[in-house]
Amino acid sequence: MTHLIKYRRPNRIFLELFIPVAILCMLVISIGYFVYYRQTITILQEKQEQETLQKFRQQDSGLDKINDEIDKIFNILLNNLIFTNVDNVDLFSQLNRLSGLKEGERITRLKHILAQMDGILEGYSQLVSIDIYTSDQNIISCSEAGTFYDFSGMGDYPLYRNGTYQNVMGKENDWYLFGANPLGDISISSRDKYNQDTNVITWAHKLFDVKGGSQIGMICLSIQEDYISDSYRYIFDSKEADFYLADIQSGEIISSLKSQEIGQECPYITEIGESVYGNLSAESEGERINVLYYRLSSADWLAVSVYPYSGYQKDTVLFRRIFSIILAVTLVSLFVILLLAVRKIMRPVEKLMEAMAQVQEGNLEYKVAGNWKNEVGLLVSSYNSMAQSVKNLIIQKERVQQEKTQQEILALRAQINPHFMLNTLNTIKCMAVMARAENVENSIVIFGKYIEALFRVQKAFHTIREEIDFLKNYIKIYNMRFGEVVKLELDVEDELWEIQIPRIVLQPVVENSLQHAFDYSDSKNVIRIAVTQRGEQIELLLQDNGRGMSLERLMELRIMVSNHREESTGEHVGIANVARRLYLYYGEQQDMQIISNEMGTTVCIRISRKCLRDTAGK
Fold this sequence. Notes:
With 618 residues, the protein is of the alpha+beta class. Among the domains are: 84-227, PAS domain (Beta-Lactamase, 2-Layer Sandwich); 236-315, PAS domain (Beta-Lactamase), CATH 3.30.450.20; 476-611, Histidine kinase-like ATPase, C-terminal domain (Heat Shock Protein 90). It contains 15 helices and 20 strands. Strands 5-4-3-8-7-6 form a six-stranded antiparallel beta sheet. A five-stranded antiparallel beta sheet has the order 10-9-13-12-11. Strands 15-17-18-20-19 form a five-stranded mixed beta sheet. Helix 1 runs antiparallel to helix 9 (317-360), helix 11 (438-455) runs antiparallel to helix 12 and helix 13 runs antiparallel to helix 15. It is rod-shaped and about 190 Å long. The protein starts with a helix and ends in a 10-residue tail after the last strand.
């Protein structure tokens, strides 16, 4: 058993201390690492969003410049057509009337119109075609592939069929932008040269008759989609990110870094709604992505940037490596520090366990040596004090046992004396009866009752009635000695006569009054005893009308009573000893108060009612 205490328990305590602290520290550090890492990802994401917003605005500004350039080209072409006359008629006013002219006149005017359009194409390399669609469904087309016109009035062309022409004519006097169309669908002259993979973005504007103000058709200026995508390709140069422009009305992607996306539907149009700028999280091909969007002011388009969350993580690879090294070093250092700290704590505990093993073997002299300035040191100090107290207690117990043995021997001897004394008193009583000495006889009878109550009853408690009877005999004996100098007045509530109290608690108080309070030349000496119930307490009140105590002696007696100190000498030994006996029986459930002045002395004893037993069964 000693070995178990000495070795196994300290190891168990060591683990109980070390493992929870180590786990807690690792948990806190790991949570801190995770929070810091997530915060870093958030910062990188916010930085990416700010940079992307700047790029969006830059692209919006670039598109504004293209709009201005297209508007400039449109005005130049329009002016050239208006101010170029053939046979005293301007070319612009003839656009909607060419089908009604004779073949020769129509071809002459067409040559002049196409020459103006071709001149614009040569002057502005970004343009790939200029196309005029008239209200009577005739077409004039000019592109790098050549020229084309159709005056059949059939209107069997994509822009007439898909509603684009109607949208342009229904729009206010402003540009209508659309894309995701092959060049061959816009410019009829390019059908044979360009395949369906050549996508263009077209600016369309309706045309009015200069004189009448009526709508005569629309003009389309087209540029290759590559011209737009090249303008933002270097801005959004990232292997992970994707960027495209989507038409808000149709939801189609009209320009993209990935050409295969052109013409597809933007999957986030419905989620974006009317927001001008923002971001949302989505999932694409099983991977989480961050979608940033921006509504362009230069066109009814939406700029969309798609960036995978894995891209943010790649940006933190170096950070994760460095922090992982720091985390590993921190955990190892923490492990070593905790190990040393716990061992330092366990060292006095092990010594304490060793001391306990010594005590179990009966060696109370063994003390734990050491001076630790902490709680463990206080524990060790308390243990040393406890061991010394146990040793002192054992010594005291042995001494008490010896005293108890001596008291038992004395008690056996004392049992002989009362028996002999009572037999002797009975003999004297018989002699007094034979001699007809009634006073002597009465005195012996009263004294015999007093002695019998004092010695023969072995109980620690008796009733208030028995205590009062004992006290009456004591007063009678006293008055036989000094004459009728003391009068005893009693006031006991009827239901309290059978309450049990410790034996002989009133007699020492009465004896104190008889010895120190009264002048025996006066026959008006009165001792009043009242027993009443005050709430939850039983009150025993003893009053005399003697000369009282001095203030100094009163204070000294009150101190002895409050400290529950037993006195073996002095003038008021009985009162102090009664107070101590009551404290030993009832503890704090009792109280004794002493009041004394020139009118007499009052001793008031209060005992909690619940501590007293009633022999009447109440």
